[in-house]
Amino acid sequence: MGSFDGLDEGLALAEAATDLVHVVTAFANNAVHAREGGQTMRAIVFAAVACAIAAGTTVTGAQAQGVTGFGRDAREKPDKKQYIPATKPQEKIFPLDATWTAVSLNGKQFNGADRPSFIIDKQYRARGYGGCNTFAATAFPLRDQQLAVGPLALTKKPCDKGLGSLEQDFFIALRTAGQWDIVGSQLIIKSQKGELRFDRAL
User: Fold this and answer.
1) Which pLDDT value is given to residue 17?
2) How far is 37 from 27, CA to CA, in rounded Å?
3) CATH T-level fold of 99-200
4) Is pTM, for the whole model, over 0.70?
């Protein structure tokens, strides 16, 4: 019995060893397969990453080409309105060699037969009457309908107090003349003293 028992134990050990060999072999095969599968997965991952990189490079290149090809000049530009300078009214020519009789200063009427008057001749010499005294000066019509009047040379005739004051206001307004205009039949001179209006003498 002892010999058979030993034989049985030997057979059991041999089967166990065989089973162990099978297990080790299967484990080794699985390991090999797992390693090969990992390499395959890594290859697939690498291929996918390479494709993604290639695709990204293509898109980036296309975008770059789009910026280069269609850059700033092809972008929509806001419409620029064409500048149109304001049209100036036609400038008038000052009427030389015409005598003008004062009508009002700042709306205050000049009454009576001795109303102030003046004339500017073609030599740009102004002369006239203030209501009591006469005067003479140089006067130059300028661009943009401006009028420059030089210092007045006056006679020194004694005048009524009220008339003298009105005459003085007229002389100051004429001496500080600025812009002039013809409105209807009247000459209008704007000055530091106010607005002078004249009718053309017959």
Assistant:
1) 46
2) 15
3) Lipocalin (2.40.128)
4) no
